[in-house]
Amino acid sequence: MTSAVRPPARILLVDDHALVRRGVRLILDGEPDLEVVAEAGDGAEAVAAARSDDGLDLAVLDIAMPRMTGLQAARELARLRPGLRILMLTMYDNEEYFFEALRAGANGYVPKSVADRDLVEACRSALRDEPFIYPGAETALIRSYLDRVRSGAGLPERPVTEREEEILKLVAEGHTSKEIGDLLFISPKTVERHRANILQKLGLRDRLELTRYAIRAGLIEP
Amino acid sequence: MTSAVRPPARILLVDDHALVRRGVRLILDGEPDLEVVAEAGDGAEAVAAARSDDGLDLAVLDIAMPRMTGLQAARELARLRPGLRILMLTMYDNEEYFFEALRAGANGYVPKSVADRDLVEACRSALRDEPFIYPGAETALIRSYLDRVRSGAGLPERPVTEREEEILKLVAEGHTSKEIGDLLFISPKTVERHRANILQKLGLRDRLELTRYAIRAGLIEP
DNA sequence: CTGTCCATCCGTGCCGGCACCCATGCGCGA
DNA sequence: TCGCGCATGGGTGCCGGCACGGATGGACAG
Questions:
Q1: Please, which residues bridge with residue A34 across strands?
Q2: Which among A79, A72, A107 is positioned nearest to A217, based on CA atoms?
Q3: Does the CB of B167 fall within 7 Å of any strand C atom?
Q4: pLDDT in tens, A82-126
Q5: Chain A, 178-217: which CBs lie within 7 Å of strand C?
Q6: Contact flag B23-A22 (C-beta cutoff 8 Å)
Q7: pLDDT (tens digit per residue) in B38-85
Q8: With a 7 Å cutoff on the CB, does A163 touch strand C?
Q9: Across the interface, do B20 and A18 touch by the CB < 8 Å criterion?
């Protein structure tokens, strides 16, 4: 009860599944140095919570959420509270998501497939601002990341332009070239040209992969 | 330590995310009458666990899992251990999967959006063989279900057959008809025939909508 | 000013998705 | 037994995705 020990880190927990929130909360609250002080069920609530409480140390964010995805929320939170650490918690151990998360301002990335100890350690790492003491098993991802950092390349740029992203979304939503052309008042051929450039830049094969990319990146909802 | 009290129900917990398993386990083990005695990370492991332990009372199954989905596992478990109660735990409060779960032999259906108390109550209901004391908030689903039962219509027909679901997944993953045909040792024309039937049954327009449907339904990962 | 990047557009050609048409064999329930 | 649903296969034809080739004008930096 004295203040001899450092007070526990104040954590905002964001997941659209109450059950998952409860479970993660039980895991985190079991640690003396961690304390969940707020919960949110989607990105908008998370932003609201961070706006009303400036004493938060860490946000644990699920990626797949309705309305505002975790990635969108992360961008917003990073803008709103630059001091807030962000840990992405996700179903996907996918490399695409990993870099999307970094670009969105995340300090850490934890797949839900990890054990509870790893989550706790990831929280502590993020709180110490250690960028990526990575909770096991993600060696391929880590190696790739570290390679890029060491080679001085920094984070890979997202190559698509604004216009291309606009077309990307519309294509991923299932519109044909003609529909998109009508919508944007350009020729369907131009749409196809953009689409081809996007596919080439992102290393994708067709609209279908593009759709899944857009969903992963939080650009559209499934 | 005496046997004056009824021993706790022996539960098999199945989810592909270790973190979710851990959280749910903490919730269930906190109840004196519930005890998680086995865990599995996919459907195949779940079946193996049920095969090697005939004293299980309840299986809590996630629907969206790699390799064998929770629905397939539920069918197998219901066949293997008729006395075993099955509770489906899922991200989706989708009507399709609600009825699909019932058909697969589930005694209960709990979205992950419910609170922990509701999960506990759903477990107890399933263990008492009470078919659907439903954990709150699913009024639309419940109402629809009750309406159908009251109107004597019974369960709606399963929209897609097993074979069709198999093709559905492969199509949604981006394989061409020829690839799928080679994979399943059937003609690409048959694949196209199935695909056409699926699109018609589900009211979808093309592969792209089908992909998003499959992602929503948890059949594939983005 | 010149080069580069971006957005805009065009033609040609292949291939696959998808909509129609058709038939066969099998199992199951009315 | 007869129909029905399911899985299997085929044919034809249109259209759109996508690859490949080309061009132009405008913005901005070196």
A1: A9
A2: A72
A3: no
A4: 889 999 888 766 655 676 777 778 888 888 877 788 899 889 988
A5: 181, 184, 186-187, 189-190, 193-194
A6: yes
A7: 999 988 899 999 999 989 999 999 887 665 567 778 888 888 888 899
A8: yes
A9: no
List of residues 6+ apart from A168 with CB closer than 8 A: A160, A198, A210, A214, A219
Structure tokens at B126: 């399933």
B88's enclosing H/E stretch is: strand B85-90
Q: Give yes or no for B61 touching A (CB within 8 A).
A: no
Instruction: Please list, in sequence order, all residues whose beta carbon lies within 8 angstroms of the beta carbon of residue B128, skipping any fewer than 6 positions away.
Output: none
Q: How far is the CA of A120 from the C1' of C28 (A)?
A: 56
Q: What is the pairing mode between strands B85-90 and A108-111?
A: unpaired
Mean of all residue pLDDT scores within chain B: 81
Strand partners of residue A154: none
Q: Which two tokens stand for residue B95?
A: 């009507």
Closest CA to A105 of A143, A40, A155, A44: A155
B209 to chain A: which residues are within 8 Å by CB? 174
Contact B50, B12 (CB under 8 A): yes
Quick one: which of A167, A191, A197, A169 has its CA closest to A178? A191
Q: Which chain A residues 53-82 have CB under 7 A to strand C? A: none
**Best residue in A208, A209, A221 to probe B by mutation, most B CBs within 10 Å?**
A208
Which chain A residues are Cβ-neighbours of B221 within 8 angstroms?
Answer: 91-92, 94
Structural tokens at position A80: 């709103």
Question: Which burial class, exposed, middle or buried, applies to B108 when counting CB atoms under 10 A from its CB (0-12, 13-18, 19+)?
Answer: buried
